[in-house]
Every structure is written in structure tokens, then in C-alpha cells.
Amino acid sequence: MGSARPGLLKRFLSYYRPQLHLLAMDTIAALVLATIDLAFPQILRTLTGGLFTQEPDAIRSALAYLGLGMAAMYALRFVCRWFVTSWGHVMGVRMESRMRQDLFDQYERMGFSYFDRHNIGDLMSRVSNDLFDISEAAHHGPEWIIICAIEIVGSFIILALISWRLSLALALTTALLFAYGLAANKRLADLFRDNRRKISQVNSQLEDSLAGARVVKSFANEDVESEKFARSNEAYLESKVRNYRGMGIFTATVSGFTGILYTVIVVYGGLLIADGQLTPADLATYALYVSMFLSPIMTILDFTEMFQKAKAGFERFVEVLDTVPDVEDRPGASALRVSAGRVRFEGVRFSYDGEDDVIRGLDLSLEPGKTVALVGPSGGGKSTTCALLPRFYDVRAGSITIDGQDVRDVTQRSLREAIGVVQQDVYLFDGTIGANIAYGKPGATFAEIRAAARAANIAEFVEGLPQGYDTEVGERGARLSGGQKQRIAIARVFLKNPPLLIFDEATSALDNESEHAVQEALAELASGRTTLVIAHRLSTIKDADEIVTIEDGRAVERGTHEELLALGGTYARYHRMQFGA
């Protein structure tokens, strides 16, 4: 797999380890195939120079045994070819499956910042296109190398025994061919890497356009999306054209070498026959073995394209595996123990790019069982503050503690199990309503799912549907209204039953009727839990125990609704803008 990354070949070979039994049997089958293919011309040469020169009766008496022997040989070849084709591919797809799982598990370890930097289409391309190419090379590589190596070496030895003079010319021409192949390989590698990037861009553009199909339709911008896709598609086309031009030059040059080789054999062989150093029969046999000698060489050279695709794909695969997640558990991290539910932000600073802070020395306190609401201008740092509590991102300076435990000192799993998040943009998985509610507690009973739905004020609606909790929600919940999706999201947090809650503008996208139903569910959910709320509609948070105004990453005002109105600052200004008083 090359040396672009240290230990790349070793890491690739490690995926063969669980399939060593199949690899061994595939290797044996390939050896038998190569031996049989190599033996046939020699058997024919022996027969034409021996048995077939004898009396007709002797030939007839031997034909039955000869036929049985040949039938047995080719029956064995049939079995070996079947094994290589079927179980050899099974070995490849098992390796592909293991790589796919490793890649997915690595994606799951990544923090939000990784997905901020990478397009989903590109990540999906690595899982599908790249791993398929790797699987094909993983299967065909060992098989072709073994068969080709035996056929090249074996046929060359036989050729040398027939005529060492012709074989010297053959060896020289072959050496030039391989030298050219190595040089061409380097150029082709760059072309295939570029092709991998271009197909990823096509997938990214496709994913982006399809995910935003409703927005595209609402603005009648199908032509805009078509033009955007056409640009990435054209770039991929140009990359493929460069690939095929490169492969065309490569294969044509190889074909030229083959023509030169056959010309040398005919001309030089004719001279040797004229000098009495070679018989016409030997030259005919030599030509037959030259064909067998060249066939595996052509196979190896043709394998170049598959190998380069696999190499480019494996490099991209390893690139992901070698990426260190931005957020990791510290060595010896303990499980979070929530006793009261007291949360402290002390001197917190955070930057998305490592340079410009969006949170600048934030101090914030959430007392047990109380609700604290964050208000302020867009971009002021409210959502970022909420994302820092469950460690979706890590603080740059300062600390966040829960009951005195720094969130960086506890495991991510225990931390996030203790926090329930209800966001404005609800994501429902393609499946049933019941399955989406149960996502809050995998393995929950139907009684628990139903109780959570009742608590979220969604049970009456669900149980009135023909299929009830088995109703399909559609992709991203497309068959449900915004309020219904929001209450399902609240139901799964009820089922999770965490001691800490985050409401990130959970009702801002809803109509008044839906907002009222959702607000009731949120109030029920927040009862007795430490809750952090982001809201643009001030009417939804006027009863919060404390309201904090966030501007430029700092807390600039604190107090109850009445206290902040009396203060006459930013909160009071927002209130006048929304209510006119």
C-alpha cells in the first residue's frame, strides 16, 4: 500500500488476520490454478514429442488414461477457480465490513468540531466508494500476485530451457517494461488521489442538495442547484478523463512493448533456426509459453488501476482513523455523580478556530433544581454556552463543574447521560414514533414509552393514529408537524430522565398553539431539574428563577424578569421591542 503514511502496509495487512484461514485456502487454490495453467503447454509438448509419435494402437490405448487425467486436472481447476472467485470475494467483503465498522466507530468518537470541518457527503464517500475499492484489491491482490508470480517464474524457466538466447532478449525487454510501469505508477497515483477527492465533492454536493430539497423547492432554485451540481460533476468528469488518458498511454505503451517482444522473438528465433540452434517446433512452443509469460505480466500491469484506487482509498481511511478527536476522556476519568445538580461556569473562554474567542471569561451559576434562562443577540454565545456543558466542545480556559466535578475529569458517556437536550431543530430518525421516543432509553418497555408520551402531551395524538406508536415518521420526521416532532423529542428526554436539562430555543419555530402545548410539556419536564434555557421569545422565560443576558461571550446582566426590567438595560430593551412596553 505504499509509504505515504508510516506503517500503511502493515496496517492494511492487519485486516487479513481474522481471515487467515480463507487467505491460506485462497493461496493454495491460486497455487493449484497457476500450476495447472503452467503444466498444460508442457504436457502438450511432451505428448507431441513422445506419445503422439508412437504407433496408432499405442496412442489409442493411452487416450482413455490421458482423458481421465486431464479431466481430473481440470475438475480440480474448476473447484479452485470456484473457491477463489466465491470465497476469495467473501474474504474481501469481510475485511471491508470490518474497515467500515472501524470507520463508523471513529466517526462516532469525533466531536462536533470534526463535523463542522467536514462535509457529510465526503465522510459517506469514504465509507462506500473508498472501502469498495479496498475490498476489491484485498481479494484480487494476493490471488493475482501468487498466480502471476508462479506463471512468470515457471514459464521463464521453461523458456530458458528451450532457448536461453531468446530468453535473454525476453528478460531485457521485460525489465524495460517494468521500469516503465514503476515510473508510470507514480503519475497514476496522483491522478487517482485527485479522482477520490472529486467524487467526494460530487457526493457532498448531492447530499447537500437533497437534504435541502424543501428549501430548494420553496425558492424555485432547482436551476441553481443543477448548476452547482454540474460544476462538481464536470470536475469529476475531467478528473476521470485525465485518469483514462493516463491509463490509455500506459496500456498503449505496454502493448507497444509486447509488439516489440514478439518481433524480437520472430526475427531472432528465425536467425537461431537458420543457424541450427533452434527447431521450428521449439520456436512454436516458445511462442506458446511467451503468451503465458506475458499474460500474468499484463494482469499485474492492469492491476495498477485497482491498486492505485485502493491505495488512495486506504490512505483516506487511515487519515480518519489517525485523527485525534477534539474531545476525549482523560486517562482515569471517572463517572459523573450528580447529587444536587449545581452547575458552575467559571472564567470560561472558548474559540471555534483557536484564535478568536466567542466566549470571553463567562461566569455563570445554576443552582440545584432551578431554571436559568439565557437571552441576548444572535452570535452572542448562548448556544455555544449550552454546547460546552455536555462537552460537545472543550473550553479553552476556565472550567465548568457539576456538583464540584470538572466536566473534563468525568467520562463523556456519564456526563451526557446526565444531561437532556431539547433543541429547536429536532432530529427524528427514520422509523416509528415509538422507536424515536425509545431512543431516550434503549430497551424501554411499551409502558415506559407510553408514560413518557403522556408526560410530553403527545400521547393523545399518537394513540389517535391508525397505527399508534407504530406510525412511521418519515425521513427526519417529514410526516409530522413541528409541534408534534418537538413533543416527541421531549418525550424521549422524559424517558431518559436526566437530572440536568438544556432547552435550546425549543419553541421559537412553533406557532402559538403548538408553542403552548410544548411549553406545558417543557415546564413539566423541568420541574425539579436544573435547567438551562435559551429563548428569543421572552414570554417563555419570564418565570425563570434567573435570567442572564449574554453579549459578546460575557454575562452582562443577571436577575429575575422584574429585576431586569427595572434595570432598564439590554433585557428591558428586548422586552420593549417584543411587547411595545
Structure description:
Helix content is 64%, strand content 10%. The strands form two sheets. A six-stranded mixed beta sheet has the order 6-7-8-3-9-10. The protein has a four-stranded antiparallel beta sheet with strand order 2-1-4-5, covered by helices on one side. The chain is built from 18 helices and ten strands. It folds into three domains: 8-321, Up-down Bundle (ABC transporter transmembrane region fold), CATH 1.20.1560; 340-418 and 500-511 and 529-581, 3-Layer(aba) Sandwich (Rossmann fold); 429-497, 3-Layer(aba) Sandwich (Rossmann fold). Helix 2 (20-49) packs antiparallel against helix 9. It has helices at 8-14, 20-49, 56-109, 112-117, 120-162, 164-211, 213-218, 222-274, 280-321, 382-388, 412-417, 433-438, 446-455, 459-463, 482-496, 512-526, 561-567, 570-579, and strands at residues 343-351, 357-366, 371-375, 397-402, 405-406, 419-423, 500-504, 530-534, 546-551, 554-559. The protein has 581 residues and is α/β, with parallel strands linked by helices. The mean pLDDT is 84.
